[in-house]
């Protein structure tokens, strides 16, 4: 049997007035006492107020989500949900908040420990309505069936994958990301770019995910520098919000590959922001992947007007160089050594990365643990 499936949040609301849909969503699900799941950055920047001002009902706020949160935070949020007798979840935040909110909505009505649900299709149901409003552009978590949480004991990021994590409604408004610090705009924007590129070269890509990925890549390359340069540029924010969503649709269905697999141990062990670890690995993994997907990388180079002639390998190499400069312009620190990682740590990192089989199996070139170590050395 050869077929592809395509999953998304049930309803996607985009555009400058997207937040206006929130009251309709509350009425549709008969929500009387929602729990707003968010974090300190979104609250202290005042951005949360865009949402609170629209709520015609009573609500509670759980604002304790930590960046790159740990698995245990889900139980804390579930306890709060029950304490406040909430009847739905509205997530307002970046990927960290959305992932905690998605797990809380799915698991608050079920028995079991969060660790029981690590892996694919371990969740059986979701009975709690889930509305998500991303404030970064971004992880695409608003449309994916994935939550990625830190496992402090194993010093790794763990994936929880289930269709019950797909939100009922994703409201994607450019107003929500205006207050992002520049470093968060840059890191989360590059994360979206990596999602689109890895989905496009994934062995599981389809014509549908290709269309999403290519459009996302074009938008991000044009508008991420603009959003970074002028945070209040609402057109750039809107294009980035849509691009991040499209990249989420692409990778949520085609999967990501070795860039993410090699980035996971960096996030788990060194607490590096997810977008930063991806940015560091991107050019080096793509350089390695050239043999497996030069033609597809060349297509991206053509889309970005980097290509000269029909030499796929040469064009693909131009793209790799371009991406290197692109991340530099966004002031993402280059090299693993800038983050205090010791060269002697690289074999242990490679031993962790090879375990991320869920993602490595999507990559267009096979990697051994020795290959991974060599890529880490290049990126050092
Ligand atoms: N579920 C998925 O599909 C998926 C995909 C990729 C990444 N992730 C996960 O998402 C997390 C990263 O998410 P992220 O990159 O969105 O960052 P984040 O949610 O960790 O936020 C980073 C920082 O920016 C602040 N912030 C966010 N929005 C803001 C705003 N509008 N104004 C002011 N401050 C703001 C936060 O308070 C936080 O301090 C990681 O844990 C990563 O593993 C999940
Ligand atoms: Fe990512």
UniProtKB/TrEMBL annotation:
Family to which this protein belongs: Belongs to the iron-containing alcohol dehydrogenase family.
Protein name: Iron-containing alcohol dehydrogenase
Ranges where the Alcohol dehydrogenase iron-type/glycerol dehydrogenase GldA domain occurs: 10-174
EC number annotated for this UniProt entry: 1.1.1.-
Source organism superkingdom: Bacteria
Enzyme class: oxidoreductase
Keywords: Oxidoreductase
PANTHER family xref list: ALCOHOL DEHYDROGENASE, ALCOHOL DEHYDROGENASE 4
């Amino acid at each position: 049997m050869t077929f592809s499936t395509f999953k998304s949040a049930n309803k996607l609301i985009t555009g400058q007035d997207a937040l206006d849909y929130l009251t309709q969503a509350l009425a549709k699900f008969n929500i009387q006492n929602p729990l707003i799941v968010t974090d300190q950055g979104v609250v202290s920047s005042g951005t949360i107020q865009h949402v609170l001002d629209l709520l015609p009902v009573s609500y509670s706020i759980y604002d304790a989500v930590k960046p790159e949160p740990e698995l245990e935070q889900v139980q804390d949020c579930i306890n709060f949900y029950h304490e406040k007798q909430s009847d739905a979840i509205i997530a307002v935040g970046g990927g960290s908040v959305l992932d905690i909110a998605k797990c809380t909505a799915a698991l608050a009505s079920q028995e079991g420990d969060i660790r029981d649900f690590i892996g694919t299709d371990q969740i059986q149901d979701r009975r709690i309505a889930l509305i998500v409003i991303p404030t970064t552009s971004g992880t695409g978590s608003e449309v994916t069936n994935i939550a990625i949480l830190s496992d402090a004991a194993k010093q790794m990021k763990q994936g929880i994958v289930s269709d019950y994590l797909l939100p009922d409604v994703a409201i994607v408004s450019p107003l929500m990301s205006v207050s992002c610090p520049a470093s968060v705009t840059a890191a989360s924007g590059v994360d979206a770019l990596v999602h689109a590129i890895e989905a496009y070269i994934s062995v599981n890509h389809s014509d549908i995910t290709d269309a999403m990925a290519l459009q996302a890549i074009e938008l991000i390359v044009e508008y991420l520098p603009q959003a970074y340069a002028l945070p209040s540029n609402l057109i750039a924010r809107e294009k980035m919000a849509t691009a991040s969503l499209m990249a989420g649709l692409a990778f949520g269905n085609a999967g990501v590959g070795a860039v993410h697999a090699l980035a996971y141990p960096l996030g788990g062990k060194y607490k590096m922001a997810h977008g930063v670890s991806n940015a560091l690995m991107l050019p080096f993994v793509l350089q390695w992947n050239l043999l497996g997907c030069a033609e597809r990388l060349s297509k991206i180079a053509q889309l970005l007007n980097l290509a000269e002639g029909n030499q796929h390998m040469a064009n693909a190499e131009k793209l790799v160089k371009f991406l290197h400069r692109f991340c530099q312009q966004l002031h993402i620190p280059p090299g693993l050594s800038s983050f205090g990682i010791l060269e002697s740590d690289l074999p242990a990192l490679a031993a962790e990365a090879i375990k991320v089989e869920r993602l490595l199996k999507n990559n267009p070139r096979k990697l051994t643990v020795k290959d991974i170590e060599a890529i880490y050395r290049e990126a050092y």
